Amino acid sequence: MTSPLNVPGTQERWSPRLWGTLLVLCAAMFLDALDVSMVGVALPSIASDLHLTTSTLQWIVSGYILGYGGLLLLGGRAADLLGRRQVFLIALGVFALASLLGGFVDSGPLLIASRFIKGLSAAFTAPAGLSIITTTFKEGPQRNRALSIYTTCAATGFSMGLVLSGLLTEVSWRSTMLLPAPIALIALVFGLRLIPRSERDRTQRGYDLPGAVTGTASMLLLVFTVVQASEVGWASARTLLSFLAVALLLASFVAIEQRSSHPLIRLGVLRSGSQVRAQLGAAAFFGSYVGFQFIATQYLQTVLGWSALQTALAFLPAGALVALSSTKVGSVVDRFGTPRLIAAGFAFMVVGYALFLRISLDPSYAAVILPTMLLIGAACALTFPSLNIQATNGVDDHEQGMVSGLLNTSVQVGGAIFLAVVTAVITAHGSADGSPQALLDSYRPGLVVVTVVAVAGLLITVTGLRTRRVAEQHTVLVAKSEPVREETAEPVSVRD
Known about the structure:
Layout (H helix, E strand, L loop, with lengths): L15 H35 L3 H29 L1 H21 L3 H29 L4 H29 L3 H6 L1 H15 L14 H24 L4 H23 L13 H31 L4 H17 L4 H8 L1 H19 L8 H28 L7 H29 L7 H46 L15
């Protein structure tokens, strides 16, 4: 299907309406990422105001992750089958209403419920928005540029969430909950006018309800189990039985998808090496960063005694670097290809995390903390857009929502799993005295885990570089053996 904004012969210069459409989609993704990180700094104030225990407080974060990570597969397929525009706008409206609810509630359960609803709506806006871009912008330089802007908005939202939370919490924690509502409503109004209409996929008349139930249930239970494991114990009967149930649900899901005439996920897409590397890379990328952010914020506030605002400003260089590079990454992808940029990004992350191992009770910000933030900012600017481009390139329009949902699932589930692992490692190495030195000593093993996850992501990506090199050599040999007129020869595509 060809979008009305992307007809054959469209000029490289984008029309105002095309820019407007992209900005609406970027605003939604910015809010999705913002909501993941912004609540972190506000948690102590929420606990004090609503008289919440630590275990209840955890669910303000986990409730969002459960809704987001558990329903992404269903959200991506719904966008393909029901219409991307319809799914995106309805979910965006629900997100705005849930934000208003979260800002005015006076009890922990209601706040958790509002967070779950926001996560659920984000599970539909994220894959729908990404698939609108990939079906509106022609594959190649145009789409690469659009995706680089879109995904860096997500990375900027996640980074800037800490900064905004630090500022707003000084006024009231309710401000952090209410902020997304007016932005979402403005985006909804403009989206109604600008986003192109999309047809339902009428070639598929059936709905894979068994696959939707087992797939969604497995993701929900997996995220729930991982989040709870650090509290009830990784080796407890409850955790082990939950993981067993997850394995059975996933096995049932795979069996259903193999037999279904209208599968929720066409498993054949995972036969592509570049697709598998994109999914695993996304999990490692976001998982390592979430673990690092958790340790860094705890270290700066608990060990060094920095305020919420000071902590937020410490992360500002990373967010600023991502924001400034948003319009440039697309052209870099066109020149070097996604595998090289993903590898470079993971290399920056590994070096940045390793440098952060030098933290002490009296560190120099310029010599210890700032270099890590700049390297992580550069890594986010290169890696996140490239992963999205690699995952969606070469995929048919009617499966863009499915692949987008799968990629976002990898991101969220990877973040939940690795954060839980990092938290468990820190807890295992903790000390009862709670002194700053004891806390610092418990954080170092967690940083080692974060670094190892980033190294794993780098190794996964390096296999893609080797595959690409072999393919390029084969192309050169074919070109030499088959004479081609100079005026008709075309350059080799750099996309993976």
